[in-house]
Amino acid sequence: MTQITFLGGCQQVGASAVLIEHKGARVLMDYGVAFKGEHRTPLPTSTRNLTAVLSHAHLDHSGSLPLLAGSHTQPVPVYTTALTRALSKLLLKDMLRIGGASLSFERQEVEHLLKNTQALAYGQRHQVSDKVGVTLLDAGHIPGSASILVEIEGNGSGSTRILYTGDLNTRATQLVQGAPSLQEIGELDFVIVESTYALSEHPPRKEVEQTFVETVRATLEERGTVLIPAFAVGRSQEVLSVLHKYRSHGLDYPIYIDGMAKSVTSVMQRYTQSFTGGPQLQRAAKRVTFVRNASDRRRALEDPAIIIAPAGMLKGGSALHYLRAVADDRRSSVLLVGKQLQGTPGAELLDTGSLTLHSRDGSSQRLHVRAKVKSFNFSCHVDRGEVLDFLRNARGNPQILTMHGDTVACNSLAETLRSEYGFTAEAATKGQTLILN
Ligand SMILES: [Zn+2]
């Protein structure tokens, strides 16, 4: 019997996990975490005969994997790209540092997991059992990200081919070239697709870059500081690459990078051959000051400069230090370059021009920001038009399951795929099992 079970990431963004089972072989695709809401971890599953495949390093895909590290005698092997393996090491250790006692796993589990994580190149097939093979394909989301193709050999009736997109992006950005067309993948029986932005359209990337560059330039000319709170993995490096590309457009000022974005950039610099924008990121990083101590932090704020610092939604990190310093300066700008989820300080700042900062001692303080605040859409996920275009090229009339989006997005995408494109499609639900034969 062959079956697909949705363990998490259904009608929500976070805690993604999908299990495929065939005659004793068990392939788990992602095992992530959610930082809010009811479903913070995927459903539990046995580690018996389990092989995990990780699409990319973001914690909503990888953050619960240490729960499945397995025993020393029966470790759970994990397969992913070499870059994702290196980034996961950084992120899972950081999660341990921040989460401490509130986590359900400890350092030993993380180390055990990382020890059993093996690298696969894009296109390199790994045989999980004599009948089940997995192949990683470039997902175009962040450097090292992959979609996962699972191929199951049937008993005389041909094979079953299942594609799990993971987080998907089809447009070229500075860092990555975008996922290839589904036509190149051959006939598919099932596609499990992300739906994060299935309700919206992104503006053209070139326009976003140009408006962003113009805002940065104007701020620097006024002798202000440009603070860019950015997600450490992917977005900080994309912004660095954009600033490098347009450096001759009045952006030739010092650039500082702080927090987790530094170590992530350093890891990506070791793998520049594995993503299209690698060589450009390498050149960009050479011009940047990696903030090491308090005097670097002071220096960053003395003269006109650009500062890239996590966290992207201002929930913590060094971005808050800089934000306090520039809040009163009308010449400075705070440029938000990622989605600001409702309820986060970043969303509050965008909506009201102020935000509440919470201290470790439990006290809170309201910060009114007089610096200019703007937001730019540098998304690295497919939008509605792009995901429909991507799926339209599928061969073999696959059945489509939507996940990794809120309930409305997942259902709306499935409904459009049914009514306008003639696919069999539905929004997956947590705990749902599809029995294939
Ligand atoms: Zn992601």
Describe this structure in words.
The chain folds into 2 domains: 2-200 and 380-435, Ribonuclease Z/Hydroxyacylglutathione hydrolase-like (Metallo-beta-lactamase, Chain A); 205-375, 3-Layer(aba) Sandwich (Rossmann fold), CATH 3.40.50.10890. Helices cover 29% and strands 23% of the residues. The protein starts with a strand and ends with a strand. Strand 1 and strand 2 form a beta hairpin. It is α/β, with parallel strands linked by helices and 437 residues long. The chain is globular, with a radius of gyration of 22 Å. The mean pLDDT is 95. The strands form 4 sheets. Strands 6-5-4-3-2-1-22 form a 7-stranded mixed β-sheet. The protein has a 7-stranded mixed β-sheet with strand order 7-8-9-10-11-20-21, covered by helices on one side. It has helices spanning 59-62, 82-99, 107-115, 205-221, 235-245, 260-270, 278-286, 294-302, 318-326, 345-352, 384-392, 407-419, and strands spanning 2-8, 17-22, 25-29, 50-53, 78-80, 117-119, 125-127, 132-138, 146-153, 159-164, 190-194, 225-229, 255-257, 288-290, 305-309, 333-336, 354-358, 364-368, 372-375, 399-403, 425-427, 433-435. It has 12 helices and 22 strands. The structure holds zinc ion. Zinc ion is lined by residues 56, 58, 141, 167. Zinc ion (ZN) is lined by residues 56, 58, 141, 167.
